[in-house]
Each structure stands twice: as structure tokens, then as C-alpha cells.
């Protein structure tokens, strides 16, 4: 798993890989800004009309809460966008590291976008369900990280596998490599917590999943 992620980072200098990486990061950043704006505006609307200093305090706390909520929900937005670039990223990785492979059968763009949206909705549901756990000091964060890692790892692996095999075959491959897939998800979940670096998680996750699929 670490080798797969290391190879993904090592390909950033490759223009064929860097193009979808930067495009994905740019769209993820735009999504994050819109999410941040929406959360802050929503908080401001909720306390509108509150009298004097109470309104100021409520607005300040609401703004802080909006920022935290946007940060927590950023990952589902980023992975939902990733479906647009999964084939371009996978093709760049295979061309660089596995040139002997026959051309991938690919997947229709509609199927890739649908995969990204489904992945994003799953991630959003998990993030919302795990939100109360974040109020439990220590153990809450650990449990949230473990569960998020499972969803992230399987999502990126199966989404990448669909370019060369059926959905059922991709799921079977994910089960056969369950610990490596979970480890990849854990690494990506941790990376997503790092400002700016989190923008690149979808492309790096796709690239690392290609290596896991090829190398086991």
C-alpha cells in the first residue's frame, strides 16, 4: 500500500498525470469554496434578527461552525468530482508504469460520473453519521477515521477497477486485497485532513488504486 501511494506521489512531475491532478484539485477547491460560502451564509441566516451583542456572538459562533462543517464535508464533495477524471488519471499511470497492458476497455463517461456521485453520496452519508462521534474525545475521532478509511479505500479501488473489469470482479478484487485497500483508505483519510494536500486526494487515490490492482 505504501509503495502504491509512493508511486502515485512520484508521478506528479509527469505532465500526463499532472494535468488531471490539477484539474481535479481546481474543481475540488471551487467546490470547497462554494461549500464554505453556503455554510457561512446559512449560519448568518439562522441568526439573522437576533438582538445586539447576542446576534454578534451567535453570528461569530455560527461562522466558526460553518467553517468546521465545510471542512468536515469537503471530502464527499471532492470524491464526487473525482469520477470526471478517473479514466484520465488511470491511463496516465498505466502508460508510465505498465506500458505492456492492453488498452483498457474503459467505462462510459456517464458511468464514471455516476460512480463519482454515488461515491460522494456514500461518503457524505458516512460523514453525517459519524459527526456525533466527533464529540467523543479521542475514541470518536479514531472510529470515524477507521470507518472513513474503509469507504474511501473500497470506493477508489472499485471505481478504478471498473475501467478493466466488471463491477462484480472489482468487488471480488477489493475483498481479496481488503487490508491493502483499507490501508490505502486510511492513508487518504489522513491526507485529506492536511490543508491544500486534501485537494489532491482523489487523483492520488485513483493512481494508488491502479498500482494496488496491478501489484496486489
Automatic annotation (TrEMBL):
It is found in: Membrane. Its main location: membrane. It holds the Pfam family EI24. The chain crosses the membrane at residues 27-47, 53-86, 107-129, 135-157, 178-201. It is a multi-pass membrane protein. Keywords: Membrane, Transmembrane, Transmembrane helix. This is CysZ protein. It comes from Humitalea rosea.
Amino acid at each position: 500500500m505504501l509503495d502504491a501511494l509512493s508511486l502515485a506521489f512520484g508521478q506528479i512531475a509527469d505532465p500526463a498525470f499532472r494535468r488531471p491532478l490539477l484539474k481535479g484539485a481546481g474543481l475540488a477547491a471551487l467546490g470547497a469554496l462554494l461549500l464554505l460560502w453556503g455554510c457561512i451564509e446559512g449560519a448568518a441566516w439562522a441568526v439573522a434578527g437576533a438582538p445586539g451583542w447576542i446576534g454578534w456572538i451567535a453570528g461569530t459562533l455560527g461562522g466558526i461552525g460553518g467553517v468546521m462543517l465545510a471542512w468536515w464535508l469537503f471530502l464527499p464533495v471532492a470524491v464526487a468530482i473525482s469520477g470526471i477524471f478517473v479514466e484520465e488519471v488511470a491511463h496516465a499511470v498505466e502508460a508510465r508504469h505498465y506500458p505492456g497492458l492492453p488498452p483498457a476497455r474503459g467505462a462510459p463517461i456517464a458511468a464514471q460520473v455516476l460512480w463519482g456521485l454515488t461515491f460522494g453520496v456514500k461518503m457524505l452519508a458516512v460523514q453525517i453519521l459519524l459527526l456525533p462521534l466527533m464529540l467523543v474525545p479521542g475514541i470518536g475521532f479514531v472510529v470515524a477515521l477507521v470507518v472513513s478509511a474503509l469507504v474511501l479505500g473500497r470506493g477508489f479501488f472499485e471505481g478504478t477497477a471498473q475501467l478493466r473489469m466488471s463491477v462484480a470482479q472489482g468487488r471480488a478484487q477489493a475483498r481479496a486485497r481488503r487490508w491493502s485497500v483499507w490501508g490505502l483508505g486510511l492513508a487518504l483519510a489522513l491526507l485529506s485532513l492536511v490543508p491544500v494536500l486534501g485537494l489532491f486526494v482523489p487523483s492520488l487515490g485513483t493512481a494508488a488504486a491502479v498500482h494496488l490492482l496491478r501489484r496486489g
